[in-house]
Design a protein that fits this description.
Blueprint (H helix, E strand, L loop, with lengths): L13 H35 L11 E6 L5 E5 L4 E3 L5 H12 L6 E3 L17 E4 H11 L2 H19 L5 H15 L18 E3 H11 L6 H5 L2 E8 L3 E6 L10 E9 L4 E9 L5 E9 L2 H18 L20
Antiparallel strand pairs: 1-2, 1-11, 3-6, 4-5, 5-7, 7-8, 9-10, 10-11
Helix pairs in contact: 2-3, 2-4, 3-4, 4-5
């Protein structure tokens, strides 16, 4: 029998009817399987999409469960924005990933490491350990500490490659490769601290990066630390105390956070990681909030809304690691 939509070629009589029914059953069985596959595919696609977050001034937002990969909230999550100092998430990760067992090594600060904007107070001739530079970058968002880290790691990468070249360029190349490997397909970098307008990414990109970086045991103490005293050696030995300006640390099971700001252009970004009531790790990103207070209030609103909108996050808490702030080493 040829099927042309009206079954005209079906032979009349009992035998023909049986043959027709058998063929029809086979056709509709295949059709049912095809529809089921399409339904499952559409369902999988829908499961990856988040719901609209609470009202906010932020131009973009993204919230995900770092442990399951489930997207919870999203708003313009695939629109590209300037990262600003959120860039330092990747700089920190590359440091511990490439030289994590060598953080006691020292760096002598030179002119190329010095810059404006937010700084950790590096001075030419200072001698800092890589670990102290990490805290200088994370606690006070030091652009100078970021440059010193990038220069040092870039030189080490070039040595491993057996090549000569610009260590800063080599480090930026590593940033692109690292972000891409973490799923940040739209992330672009031109420097290790975020001053360049070419440092861009989507909220989804930043969320995927943060899901890895804020759950890395090597970095957790630094993200959660609010204050650290350092002994700086070199030409002008001294003691300094670094204090974070992150208002949200210590609130509602917050594990860590990082801001990115361009005050003159009214761009206020924030990424935060916290533990849900069931113990799972959640990552939230807001980009382009209208003010510094707004970005914190909008992140708090996301944290507060999650248990209501996603009741599964209120389930029994599983085993948790010790507080990342313990030691603040």
């Amino acid at each position: 029998m040829s099927f042309d939509g009206n079954f005209k070629s079906a032979r009349p009589g009992p035998a023909g009817a049986v043959r027709f029914l058998g063929l029809a059953d086979g056709f509709f069985a295949k059709l049912t399987v095809a529809v089921l596959i399409m339904t499952l595919a559409c369902g999988a696609f829908t499961a990856r999409a988040g719901v609209e977050p609470p009202d906010m001034t932020a131009r973009s937002a993204f919230v995900m469960n770092a442990e399951t990969g489930q997207v919870l909230y999203e708003k313009n999550a695939d629109k590209v924005f300037r990262m600003l100092s959120l860039t330092k998430l990747v700089t920190a990760y590359i440091l511990v990933d490439r030289m994590g067992d060598r953080l006691i090594e020292t760096v002598t600060v030179d002119r190329p490491h010095l810059t404006g904007g937010s700084t950790a107070g590096l001075k030419r001739g200072d001698v800092w350990t890589l670990q102290d530079l990490l805290y200088g970058m994370v606690l006070v968002s030091g652009n100078d500490a970021s440059l010193a880290i990038a220069d040092t790691v870039g030189r080490d990468l070039l040595a491993r490659d057996g090549k000569n070249g610009d260590p800063m360029k080599r480090f930026v190349d590593e940033m692109r490769a690292t972000a891409g490997a973490l799923g940040a397909e739209n992330a672009q970098f031109a420097d290790p601290y975020g001053l360049s307008p070419s440092n861009v990414a989507t909220a989804r990109d930043i969320g995927l990066v943060a899901a890895k970086i804020f759950t890395d045991e090597r970095l957790l103490p630094a993200w959660a630390c609010t204050e650290r005293s350092l002994r700086i050696e070199g030409k002008k030995p001294r003691k300094i105390t670094l204090k974070t300006s992150l208002e949200i640390l210590g609130e509602r099971e917050v594990i860590g956070a990082k801001t990115g700001s361009h005050v003159s252009k009214n761009i206020y970004n924030l990424v935060t990681t916290w533990r849900a009531p069931n113990g799972q790790t959640i990552v939230g990103v807001v980009l382009g909030s209208e003010s510094n207070p707004a970005r914190y209030d909008e992140m708090r609103a996301l944290i507060a809304a999650l248990p209501r909108d996603f009741p599964s996050l209120t389930g029994p808490a599983g085993p948790q690691s010790s507080s990342p702030s313990q030691g603040c080493r």
